[in-house]
């Protein structure tokens, strides 16, 4: 069932999909996308890699255990929620930091907005990515 | 027992004693203020929306109990440190006992009914842990569980009563409730019954008394502290606490008098019959609780004075006697009346403590017990049924005198009747300090009853009866009156019974042995409960997935369809004018996919059909303006197909014959659920839609959360906490799946042909 | 259009229920996938259908144009889809493992934890002392007998 075309292609497609997944994650706040979608794309990329080459190779490529990625993501999401506590705001209230000059005519107070909301979305991305990879790898290894 | 060699360490051994002593000192410092009629209080909001506060208030009644709890607690903890010296689990024991003491203090100081209930349950739980402390012994575990169930069940009734009181009075604040009174409220009857169940289970009134003698399975310091001086008085405390708002009615008077009187007489007869010193003391505790309840039934100054005085004196002498029995048990290895004797010479200090405490218990001047008994007799004369109350008190007190003789004279002053398991010698100082101090207090306060009157009795009486009440005066010599005559009769009859104790015991053994045993009934009840649980589990959880599912779906179909039919809420005929051909094709694709998945016998076909359905649903999301959802749905469908395809490599055909069988009954049920769903949805669609939340999100998404994709802003900002919970679920699902696959090795080859590797 | 979707959801639900009532647990899991889809559509439909107006704010604007699709049910459905996937994956792997251990996909024959009453009586007599309190024996011998019995 191992096709040479799939095996050769899987590596490049996987890399492309990973880049795309990060793109989807980052643009999510303003256009369709976000942590859930990004994470699913990333997980699918590694599922493809595992099917095209082998789970062992996919695991090597990932370097860390996927379940650790998922749990780390959960921790990051929690941290994003706790960041509100520094300002005395309610748990999970968004915190914003605007870098760069003010952009006229918009509500955005800086050219590069950073926020705890983005951190939270990254946590969601890692959770979904790690969980999907965990499930697919485990299932593939059973066969 | 490791004897004096063992050490318990500073933290476990001495810290609890220090805590208790510090608390005692603190409460002593509050005494003058309380005696002056003030009630120091602190309070925090707890559940303001329900009108529940978390507060403490130190009034006379609370202070009396708090002094007893912390003072006796300090002595008992000191005692335990020597009694269980070197016990490997002493730290655990000290923790339980200290927690119990703090919970008990919380109970008596609580200013709010709900806080009181919480502390009440905490005492129940810590008491359970302490009774079952010797957990290797199944009997000890069983008795602990019995105490937990009986008192816990009573507490549930009490909680219901508290809620009724809260609704009737409009507040949970005890002082406010007592100021308003509940006697005239239409729910008074129900409230009274529920309160009595709670109080009578905790304070072990007949017929709910059977757990208390069994609770003596605990180590002796626990019995001394919980089951004579403090916890069992919790029920009495509750009745005294709510005395202003519940007392004064016929129902209150009769129920407390009858139950208290019956308990007092029954328990003193039982006490006379016991040959184990600890069991005898356990039943005299029951008798004291009965007497306290009886006295609370009345509302005269004399009765309440007698209540407060007897409460104090009983705690002093009973704790002392339990501790003495603990010393005897510790040093000789037995508690049997028939064996013990001749301990005066080897254990003189213990004998002195026993004698003083027993004299107080028997009510002999000049001890405090005498004064309390005098006032109790005097209150009987003022009561609604002087003859009944006086006769009950007389009968109980006569037997108390006899039991006091059995406990204090037998082991020390009579000759030894057999070889003792251990050669007796005097107990260590830490074990003597408690009983000697408590017994000496009984004597000292009898000679000088002034402090008891000022700081303990008067505040209790005034708190219960209001500022106009007149407490009786505590004094040793009140002249020749009816009470003194009754005291003399009591003493004479008591000594007579003691002299004839062998015959009395045999007679009681015959008479009481014939009674049905509530303890055995309890075991039968528990066995029946377990059998019922097994029976109903087999009915409800037969272990067949199909039955569970069918039950669920039948209920859903009946609840949905039935309620729509009953209420006549069937939707109007839908308007289908806006249907476009493209959408019909799309929906038709989804429908066809699902029908095919349901009825095909081929695994691959079913998987493909599921894929068609999923992608059709994704397209529906695209058509109806949900790009984020559509992308998610597409990706998830892809992954589902991948996982199913992998699984199918290892799984057998769907049907052994290769052809699916049609199941008409299942199809009928499925159709009913499906039609019900459609009807509900149609009805929902014909209702107006509340868009206020959506409008808020649309308006706030950019100005407040700086995001242009409203769906994502809702997910990661407005509802971030929900999303956090949801991703936690995803992680849990992944981790548990992983664990499921990793931890158990597959057992290939068991199954039918085709699955072998 | 919304009414027609409601009818379709009814059909999806009916198919899902029919599948979930089957003895074969693989069919049960197919039913699980279908009923998740149906539930998601219910939530989506509850917020009403709007064609061609996704809930996005144009660049330069501070609010979406009026008449845009309802964003709230979309957010709810999005997480529901991902959680539904987690549930599906867990159920699939549970079933997979059950098949590997018990050798059957028939839910009527999966009786490891709750043996049939007729078999249970025999197990109790064999494995349990007469005065044991636990009425639900789950000893290893009983489990192994069950599993091999099911496989026969």
TrEMBL record, chain A:
Gene Ontology CC: plasma membrane
InterPro entries (alphabetical):
CPA3_antiporter_subunitB, MnhB
Per UniProt, what is the membrane topology?
Answer: Multi-pass membrane protein
Looking at the UniProt entry, the stretches that span the membrane are 12-29, 35-56, 68-86, 117-138
Indicate yes or no for the key word Transmembrane helix: yes
Location of this chain's protein in the cell? Cell membrane
Any Pfam family hit: MnhB
Q: Which family does it belong to?
A: Belongs to the CPA3 antiporters (TC 2.A.63) subunit B family.
Q: What is this protein called?
A: Multisubunit sodium/proton antiporter MrpB subunit
Species whose genome carries this gene: Hasllibacter halocynthiae
Query: What lineage does the source organism belong to?
Result: Bacteria, Pseudomonadati, Pseudomonadota, Alphaproteobacteria, Rhodobacterales
Automatic annotation (TrEMBL), chain B:
**Which ranges carry the NADH-Ubiquinone oxidoreductase (complex I) chain 5 N-terminal domain?**
49-93
Q: Which GO terms describe its cellular component?
A: plasma membrane
How does the entry describe its membrane topology? Multi-pass membrane protein
- TM spans (from-to): 60-79, 91-111, 117-135, 147-172, 184-201, 252-269, 281-298, 304-328, 349-372, 384-409, 429-448, 476-500, 547-570, 582-599, 604-624, 630-652, 664-685, 723-741
Q: What range(s) does the NADH:quinone oxidoreductase/Mrp antiporter transmembrane domain occupy? A: 110-393
**Keywords assigned:** Antiport, Cell membrane, Ion transport, Membrane, Transmembrane, Transmembrane helix, Transport
The places in or outside the cell where this protein is found are: Cell membrane; Membrane
Database matches in Pfam families: MbhD, MbhE, Proton_antipo_M, Proton_antipo_N
| Domain of life assignment | Bacteria
Q: Name one GO molecular function term.
A: antiporter activity
Keyword Ion transport assigned to the entry: answer is yes
Q: Cite a single GO BP annotation.
A: monoatomic ion transport
Residue ranges of the MrpA C-terminal/MbhD domain? 589-653
* Residues of the MrpA C-terminal/MbhE domain: 663-746
What InterPro entries does the entry give?
Answer: CPA3_Na-H_Antiporter_A, MrpA_C/MbhD, MrpA_C/MbhE, ND/Mrp_TM, Proton_antipo_N
PANTHER family assigned to the protein according to its UniProt record, in alphabetical order:
NA(+)/H(+) ANTIPORTER SUBUNIT, NA(+)_H(+) ANTIPORTER SUBUNIT A
Query: Could you tell me what this protein does?
Result: NDH-1 shuttles electrons from NADH, via FMN and iron-sulfur (Fe-S) centers, to quinones in the respiratory chain. The immediate electron acceptor for the enzyme in this species is believed to be ubiquinone. Couples the redox reaction to proton translocation (for every two electrons transferred, four hydrogen ions are translocated across the cytoplasmic membrane), and thus conserves the redox energy in a proton gradient.
Q: What is this protein identified as?
A: Multisubunit sodium/proton antiporter MrpA subunit
TrEMBL record, chain C:
Spell out where the chain crosses the membrane: 6-22, 29-51, 71-96
Asked if Repeat is a keyword of the record, the answer is: no
Pfam families per the UniProt record, alphabetical? Oxidored_q2
Q: Where is this region: Disordered?
A: 114-152
Where does this protein chiefly localize? membrane
Q: Name one GO cellular component term.
A: plasma membrane
Q: Which residues form a coiled coil?
A: none
Q: Metal-binding: present as a keyword of the record?
A: no
Annotated Low complexity bias: 127-141
What is its subcellular localisation? Cell membrane
Q: Which InterPro entries match?
A: CPA3_antiporter_subunitC (IPR050601), NUOK/Mnh_C1-like (IPR039428)
List UniProt keywords, sorted A-Z: Cell membrane, Membrane, Transmembrane, Transmembrane helix
Superkingdom field: Bacteria
Per the record, membrane topology reads: Multi-pass membrane protein
- Basic and acidic residues bias (residue ranges): 114-123
Cite the NCBIfam families for this sequence: PRK12658.1 (NF009301)
Q: Which family does it belong to?
A: Belongs to the CPA3 antiporters (TC 2.A.63) subunit C family.
Q: What is this protein called?
A: Multisubunit sodium/proton antiporter MrpC subunit
């Amino acid at each position: 069932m191992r096709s040479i075309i799939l095996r050769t292609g899987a590596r490049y497609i996987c890399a492309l999909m990973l880049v795309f997944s990060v793109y989807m994650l980052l643009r999510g706040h303003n256009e369709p996308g976000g942590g859930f979608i990004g994470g699913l794309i990333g997980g699918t990329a590694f599922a493809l890699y595992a099917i095209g080459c082998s789970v062992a190779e996919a695991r090597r490529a990932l370097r860390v255990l996927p379940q650790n990625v998922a749990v780390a993501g959960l921790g990051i999401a929690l941290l994003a929620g706790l960041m509100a506590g520094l300002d005395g705001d309610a748990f999970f209230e968004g915190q914003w930091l605007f870098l760069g000059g003010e952009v006229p005519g918009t509500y955005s107070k800086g050219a590069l907005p950073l926020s705890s909301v983005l951190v939270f979305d990254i946590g969601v991305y890692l959770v979904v990515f790690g969980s999907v990879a965990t499930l697919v790898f485990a299932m593939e290894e059973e066969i | 027992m490791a004897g004096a060699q063992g050490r318990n360490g500073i933290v476990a051994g001495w810290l609890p004693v220090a805590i208790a002593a510090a608390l005692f000192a603190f409460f002593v410092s509050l005494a003058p203020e309380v005696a002056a009629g003030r009630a120091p209080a602190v309070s925090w909001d707890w559940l303001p929306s329900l009108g529940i506060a978390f507060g403490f208030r130190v009034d006379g009644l609370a202070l009396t109990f708090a002094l007893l709890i912390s003072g006796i607690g300090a002595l008992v903890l000191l005692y335990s440190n020597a009694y269980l010296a070197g016990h490997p689990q002493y730290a655990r024991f000290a923790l339980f006992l200290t927690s119990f003491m703090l919970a008990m203090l919380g109970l008596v100081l609580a200013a709010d009914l709900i806080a009181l209930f919480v502390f009440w349950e905490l005492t129940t739980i810590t008491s359970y842990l302490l009774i079952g402390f010797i957990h290797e012994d199944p009997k000890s575990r069983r008795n602990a569980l019995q105490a937990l169930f009986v008192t816990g069940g009573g507490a549930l009734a009490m909680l219901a009563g508290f809620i009724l009181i809260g609704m009737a009075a409009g507040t949970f604040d005890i002082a406010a409730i007592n100021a308003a009174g509940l006697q005239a409220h239409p729910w008074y009857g129900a409230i009274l019954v529920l309160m009595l169940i709670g109080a009578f289970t905790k304070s072990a009134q007949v017929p709910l008394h059977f757990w208390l003698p069994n609770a003596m399975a605990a180590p002796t310091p626990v019995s001394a502290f919980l089951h004579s001086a403090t916890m069992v008085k919790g029920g009495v405390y509750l009745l005294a606490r709510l005395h202003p708002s519940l007392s004064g009615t016929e129902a209150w008077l009769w129920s407390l008098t009858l139950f208290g009187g019956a308990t007092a007489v029954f328990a003193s007869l039982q006490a006379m019959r016991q040959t184990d010193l600890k069991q005898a003391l356990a039943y005299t505790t029951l008798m004291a609780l009965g007497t306290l309840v009886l006295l609370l039934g009345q509302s005269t100054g004399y009765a309440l004075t007698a209540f407060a005085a007897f409460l104090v004196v009983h705690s002093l002498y009973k704790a002392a006697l339990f501790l003495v029995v603990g010393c005897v048990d510790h040093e000789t290895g037995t508690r049997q009346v028939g064996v013990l004797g001749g301990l005066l010479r080897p254990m003189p200090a213990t004998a002195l403590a026993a004698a003083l405490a027993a004299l107080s218990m028997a009510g002999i001047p000049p001890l405090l017990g005498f004064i309390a008994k005098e006032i109790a007799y005097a209150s009987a004369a003022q009561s609604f049924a002087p003859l009944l109350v006086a006769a009950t008190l007389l009968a109980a007190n006569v037997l108390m005198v006899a039991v006091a003789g059995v406990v204090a004279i037998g082991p020390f002053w009579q000759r030894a009747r057999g070889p003792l398991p251990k050669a007796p010698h005097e107990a260590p100082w830490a074990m003597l300090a408690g009983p000697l101090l408590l017994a000496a207090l009984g004597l000292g306060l009898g000679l000088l009853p002034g402090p008891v009157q000022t700081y303990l009795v008067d505040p209790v009486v005034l708190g219960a009866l209001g500022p106009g009440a007149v407490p009786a005066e505590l004094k040793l010599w009140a002249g020749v009156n009816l009470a003194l005559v009754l005291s003399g009769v009591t003493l004479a009859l008591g000594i007579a019974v003691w002299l004839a104790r062998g015959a009395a015991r045999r007679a009681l053994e015959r008479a009481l042995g014939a009674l049905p045993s509530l303890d055995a009934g309890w075991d039968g009840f528990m066995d029946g409960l377990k059998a019922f649980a097994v029976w109903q589990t087999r009915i409800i959880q037969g272990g067949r997935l199909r039955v569970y599912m069918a039950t669920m779906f039948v209920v859903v179909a009946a609840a949905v369809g039935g309620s729509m039919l009953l209420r006549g809420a069937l939707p109007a005929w839908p308007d289908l004018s806006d249907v476009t051909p493209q959408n019909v094709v799309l929906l038709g694709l989804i429908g066809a996919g699902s029908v095919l998945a349901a009825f095909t016998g081929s695994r691959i076909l079913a998987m493909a059909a599921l894929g068609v359905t999923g992608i059709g649903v994704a397209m529906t999301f695209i058509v109806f303006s949900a790009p984020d959802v559509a992308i998610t749905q597409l990706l998830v469908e892809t992954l589902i197909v991948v996982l199913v395809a992998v699984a199918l490599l290892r799984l057998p055909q769907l049907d052994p014959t290769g052809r699916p069988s049609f199941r008409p009954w299942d199809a009928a049920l499925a159709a009913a659920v499906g039609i019900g769903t459609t009807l509900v949805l149609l009805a929902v669609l014909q209702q107006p839609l509340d868009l206020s939340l959506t409008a808020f999100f649309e308006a706030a998404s950019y100005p407040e959360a700086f995001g242009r994709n409203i769906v994502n802003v809702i997910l990661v900002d407005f509802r971030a906490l929900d999303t956090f919970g949801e991703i936690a679920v995803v992680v849990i699902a992944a981790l548990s799946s992983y664990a499921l696959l990793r931890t158990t090795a597959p057992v290939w080859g068991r199954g039918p042909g085709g699955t072998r590797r | 259009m919304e009414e027609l979707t409601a009818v379709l959801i009814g059909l999806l639900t009916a198919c899902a229920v029919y599948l979930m009532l089957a003895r074969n647990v693989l069919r049960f899991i197919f039913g699980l996938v279908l009923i998740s889809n149906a539930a998601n559509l219910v939530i989506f439909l509850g917020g009403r259908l709007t064609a061609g107006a996704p809930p996005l704010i144009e660049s330069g604007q501070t609010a979406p144009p009026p008449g845009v699709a309802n964003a709230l049910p979309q957010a709810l459905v999005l997480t529901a889809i991902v959680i539904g996937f987690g549930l599906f994956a867990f159920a699939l792997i549970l079933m997979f493992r059950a098949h590997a251990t018990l050798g059957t996909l028939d839910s009527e024959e999966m009786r490891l934890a709750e043996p049939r009453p007729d078999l249970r009586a025999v197990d109790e007599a064999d494995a349990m002392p007469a005065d044991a309190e636990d009425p639900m024996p789950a000893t290893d011998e009983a489990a192994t007998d069950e599993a091999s019995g099911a496989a026969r």
